[in-house]
From TrEMBL:
Pfam families: MMPL (PF03176). The keyword Membrane applies. This is RND superfamily putative drug exporter. Signal peptide: none annotated. The chain crosses the membrane at residues 180-198, 205-225, 231-252, 279-298, 304-330, 366-388, 521-545, 552-577, 589-610, 631-650, 656-679. One of its GO terms (cellular component) is plasma membrane. It is a multi-pass membrane protein.
Length: 729
């Protein structure tokens, strides 16, 4: 099938390329508007959770009674008692349209000392925005963001909504800079890996088609469902990485076939029948892995699923159609404009070191498996002590407004108005009757006595609903405040009443609960699909199990390293961040999905070549060494190219983006070197012919319905197993 598709694209190359160019032009115009329809806010909350339901109720007549924006005004010369200070702040308050806020408070409107810093040179304006969700509040905030300037005073903007908007702005700016930094290095590496200008340009051509197609899909999907701005970032990262990976796999095989003396048409056909099949199998696995993020209902993770799947599908489509058309058009000129570097001569035998390493590993396979396995498990042990949270001001530099406001409210003011847990109580009858008020007062006292709660008061009632506001001083993101939330939720409400808790600590607890519930389902989807796809590709039930275990080991090692670096602060000075003491729980989900998919990409590519050599020679040891020799260098190069793009994220000032870069690079390095170079040959040597084993009924089914290598027709020698048979090609 894939060889036929390659021949079709090569035969109709001009039509294929003309269609691709037309698609890039029209799709580029259409897809360029994708960013404008993506929603604001982080999109991290858990829809349908207790905190989300409480927010929905509070958006009604009761009101949320918590500031979304806190603007601190400071004067080194004036104190808040100076009439000029008061006039400047009140002019700002009067300037904000009344329909842009639900509640606006200042020191002078409340008379509360909570609004004044201890040195009296600072005060804040607290603004509650309309809307039940962060996304709705961001829209309002953007409309009034230019109205907070007070002549003669310095202002800094904080609060959850302002912090989220600052996070997105800084994130977009830093990612654009990271892309500019990585692009020259990527071009240089492409030239070194592909050894010529013409060949190096092919992945970039595929990447353009992938990016345009993915942005077009996002604009369509974004018009139907609410997507996060993070979707654009995924398109950029994955699009360039997968385009490079897939082009490298196919182009390497195309060059091999040309070097073997085949015609251009035959080289395209055979390259697509082998490497093209690998790309399709890998792409399907990566797409389903990323699609597994849909089990999490948060807008952030579902956006990553939509954007990631669209990127992968377009990467596969472009690699299977546009690339063979380009290869047929260019033909033997693929090696034109070569770099005059003597150490890159193609007449040198390639992969000899990997070949020797593979044989060395297979002489002591059990020792290698035991040593590498223990090393990976040891690296993953810090994961047992991980503390999960969500992004916030801690993820930004200390001089950014949101981080500075949070620090000033904690250190210089008597009270931080954003550190509030709101309780919505639905009484069995009207909440304003004397009996109901007495019951609410008793419930409020009990809540106020729970450790970690500094203030507790009934702050509103409407119909059968009442609102209790609880103040705290602990970090909003750590495990301690979530223990407080758990104790609050365990406190019995008044007889016949129900109580719901919301705001940052409660919403973080609900988010972590959502991820915890969805993670087993995602793992199940990934494991089942990986098993099915690899069985279809190789006709073996042993290989999928081996691959899944090895990939999980490498991922656990990467996550353990992330705990050491970002939670415990190891290398924090070198990487330029302050360790917050916890990790963003969304990042491992994203890194795990992407890294697992890419690991399967490399796994399928290497095993396909090992199988090809096994079918040709029937030698389970030599076939592994030859397969590693032909693919290990390509896999290392592919991981290096993608690693350059991801490593540029370490230069960003947002800690969670650094997490993506560091975590993904570690996972790539471990997989492309330790796993592919050591674990694969060692485990294949231990398995021997049984690596290709399947029960007899499955082996017979695979003979008629599987996806064997199209360029190979010789069946493998049968595995010696009393109740099974091998699955030949």
């Amino acid at each position: 099938m894939f060889a036929k598709l390659g021949r079709f694209s090569a035969r109709h190359r001009l039509w294929v390329l003309a269609t691709a160019v037309l698609f890039v032009v029209l799709g580029g115009v259409w897809g360029s508007g994708a960013g404008g329809i993506l929603g604001g806010g982080a999109g991290l909350d858990a829809p349908g959770s207790e905190s989300a339901e409480a927010n929905r109720i509070l958006a009604g007549s009761l009101g949320r009674h918590v500031p979304d924006v806190v603007v601190i005004y400071e004067s080194p010369a004036m104190t808040v008692d100076d009439p000029r200070f008061r006039q400047a702040v009140e002019q700002v308050a009067a300037r904000i349209p009344k329909d842009a806020y639900v509640r606006l408070e200042t020191y002078w409107s409340t008379g509360s000392a909570d609004f004044v810093s201890r040195d009296k040179h600072k005060t804040y304006l607290a603004l509650q925005l309309p809307g039940a969700t962060e996304e709705e509040q961001v829209v309002v905030y953007r409309d009034i963001a230019g109205l907070f300037d007070a002549p003669g005073l310095t202002e800094r903007r904080g609060g959850l909504t302002a912090i989220g908007e600052q996070f997105n702005t800084i994130n977009s700016r830093d990612l654009s800079r990271a892309e500019l930094i990585s692009f020259p290095f990527l071009i240089l590496l492409l030239l070194l890996v592909f050894r010529g200008l013409v060949a190096a340009a092919l992945p970039l051509a595929v990447a353009v088609v992938v990016a345009v197609g993915s942005l077009s899909v996002l604009r369509v999907v974004g018009g139907i469902v609410d997507l996060s701005t993070a979707a654009i970032n995924v398109v950029v990262i994955l699009g360039l990485g997968l385009a490079t990976d897939y082009a490298l796999l196919i182009l390497t095989r195309f060059r091999e076939e040309l070097a073997a003396g085949r015609t251009v048409d035959d080289a395209v056909s055979r390259a697509m029948g082998s490497a093209g099949r690998t790309v399709a199998v890998s792409g399907l696995t990566v797409a389903v892995t990323l699609g597994g993020l849909l089990v999490f209902p948060s807008r952030f993770l579902t956006s990553l699923a939509y954007s990631g799947v669209s990127v992968v599908l377009f990467a596969v489509l472009a690699a299977l159609t546009v690339l063979p058309a380009l290869l047929r058009l260019i033909g033997r000129r693929v090696d034109a404009l070569r770099l005059p570097l003597p150490w890159l001569r193609r007449d040198r035998p390639q992969g000899r070191r990997w070949y020797r390493v593979a044989h060395g590993v297979m002489r002591r396979p059990f020792t290698v498996v035991l040593a590498v396995g223990l090393a990976l498990v040891t690296l993953g042990l810090p994961l047992l002590g991980v503390v999960w949270s969500r992004p916030g001001e801690w993820a930004m530099r200390g001089d950014v407004d949101g981080a500075a406001v949070t620090r000033q409210l904690a250190e210089e003011f008597p009270y931080d108005p954003t550190k509030v847990i709101t309780t919505v109580v639905r009484m069995p009858g009207p909440a304003t009757t004397p009996g109901a008020q007495a019951a609410l007062a008793d419930f409020t006292r009990r809540l106020g006595r729970i450790g970690g709660v500094d203030r507790a008061a009934v702050t509103g009632a409407s119909g059968d609903l009442a609102r209790i506001t609880l103040g705290y001083s602990k970090s909003s993101y750590g495990a301690e405040i979530r223990e407080v939330v758990a104790r609050l939720r365990a406190e019995p409400p008044p007889a016949g009443a129900t109580a719901l808790f919301t705001n940052r600590p409660a919403s973080i607890a609900d988010m972590l609960d959502m991820i915890g519930r969805g993670l087993p389902w995602m793992l199940l989807i990934v494991v089942v699909v990986t098993f099915v796809v690899m069985f279809l590709a190789f006709g073996s039930v042993t290989l999928p199990l081996k691959s899944i275990v090895m990939n999980l080991l490498s991922l656990s090692a990467a996550f353990g390293a992330m705990v050491l670096i970002f939670q415990n602060g190891f290398l924090s000075g070198l990487l330029g961040f302050t360790a917050p003491g916890f990790l963003d729980a969304n990042m491992p989900v994203l890194i795990g999905a992407v890294s697992f998919g890419l690991a399967m990409d490399y796994e399928v590519f290497m095993l396909a070549r090992i199988r090809e050599e096994y079918l040709r020679t029937g030698d389970p040891v030599e076939s592994v060494a030859l397969g590693v020799r032909h693919t290990a260098g390509v896999i290392t190069a592919a991981a290096l190219l993608l690693g350059v793009v991801l490593a540029a994220f370490v230069t960003t000032s947002v800690t969670v983006i650094k997490m993506i870069g560091v975590g993904s690079v570690i996972a790539l390095l471990v997989d492309a070197t330790v796993v592919r170079g050591l674990l694969v040959p060692a485990t294949m040597r231990l398995l021997g012919r049984h690596a290709w084993w399947a029960p007899a009924p499955l082996a017979r089914w695979w003979l008629h319905h599987g996806l064997p290598e199209e360029s190979i027709s010789t069946p493998p020698p049968p595995a010696r197993h009393p109740t099974s048979t091998s699955a030949p090609a």
